[in-house]
Amino acid sequence: MDKRKLRELLVEHKEHALKAGDYFARQASSDPDRLFAQKEIHTITGVRRSGKSTLMRLLMKKLLDSGRTELNQLLFLNFEDERFAEFRSSDFQALYEAYLELEAPLAGKKYFFLDEIHNVPVWQRWVNRLYEFEDIKIFVTGSNAAMLSSEVATALTGRNRIMELFPFSFREFVRVKGTIPDDRDFLRPEKRAALVHLFDRYVQTGGFPEALKTGDTSILQEYFRDIIYRDIVARHGLRNVRELKELALYLASNISCRMSYKKLQDLISVRSVNTVKNYLSYLEDAFLFIRINLFDYSIKKQIYNPAKIYCVDHALAAAAGFRFSADIGRTLENIVCLELKRRGHEIYYWRNRAGLEVDFLVKQGLDIAGAIQVCHDLEEPGTKRREIKAALAAAKKFGLDRVTVVTSDVWQEDTLDGVKIDYLPVWKWLLG
After folding, report:
1. Is 0.85 topped by the overall pTM?
2. In total, how many domains does the chain have?
3. How far is CA 54 from CA 18, 113, 144, 166, 209, in A?
4. CATH number for 93
5. What CATH number has the domain bearing residue 351?
6. What are the tens digits of pLDDT across the range 70-113?
7. Considering 140, 165, 190, which residue would you say is the last residue of a domain?
8. Which is nearest to 96 in space by CA: 118, 81, 114?
9. CA gap 167, 148 in Å, rounded
10. Helix, strand or coil for residue 111?
11. What is the pLDDT of residues 248-287, one digit of tens each?
12. Could you tell me the residue range of the domain that residue 337 belongs to?
């Protein structure tokens, strides 16, 4: 690829990245000084259309606004541009030379933002060389687990930090609509009513930036198709698209349900359970679904027991799945699962021999540090009794002195059998 074309792309892409736009702030960009001070390469991964490119633009703008660097010290390229179709790994040196000739950067740290760079084979070798021999802070993005493959991990071991970007959290959603309330606001009826209203909207639109901005969730079906065809079928060269689509649609229609490989094998009528395992792996690698295992001290039992499946965005699951009516209970459970993942927790579900089940156990180090039960409706006495009985059983099993029950609207504290139970409305729990 000749340098003249590379220089044109360098100018065009950076101008476009810094063009004024209606960008929503993200939690991941709230402490840019910490990110910029870290030497390691930052690998930003996450589901397609979750805002990875926008996060890069926000970081670039914060760099310039802070006076930390000058415009000619920045490089931004999006390798999904079709004009990079002929770009090869051998062109990376020419690209770097074109940047130096075009920008004539001053001595000192430079900042490279490389969007969807996984489209270029062995990109990690060039990035690793820049890291080793140049004073460059590097951010890279990618929409699939090619960014986390063993080959990439080996090349960048000890040199990179992974940032998984999810669709907007409720906290980010509230910040877009105004300001995060403080503890006093929670005590004001009008403020609480406003937050409940915002949460109802969040349930409808989900957290994908475009759906959040426009309120139009029909675009989520397009996202679902793109993930299936562009991030999975095309990448893995799959021939039987029907099987994969049927599996994905079933999972989207049944979020938070326990599912075994055998059940899914029978559902999509495939001969081998290994085919199901491969499809699930592809769907997880594309960040479309999240698998939560049963907690057991035996790894073998964790692997062979049914897992629970959640979608990366509850509104995406609703748009793509097949349901006759909304299941708010499962939706709330999906929202809580995603928030726990955003917070970086290692989570499991738990079920004892009596069939009592707790939605989420939070593991810290070698210990279970928390139990969270999600229950939409506590008005029905039988439901409340069953959910609390399961939570107390988990508390006894793992030596917990308190558990959390996330509800639609109940906000109170209780103590049973020496265990403190925190009942929290889901919107309050999400705001932290």
Report:
1. yes
2. 2
3. 10, 11, 17, 13, 10
4. 3.40.50.300
5. 3.40.1350
6. 999 999 999 999 999 999 999 999 999 999 999 998 888 999 99
7. 165
8. 114
9. 19
10. strand
11. 999 999 999 999 999 999 999 999 999 999 999 999 999 9
12. 328-432
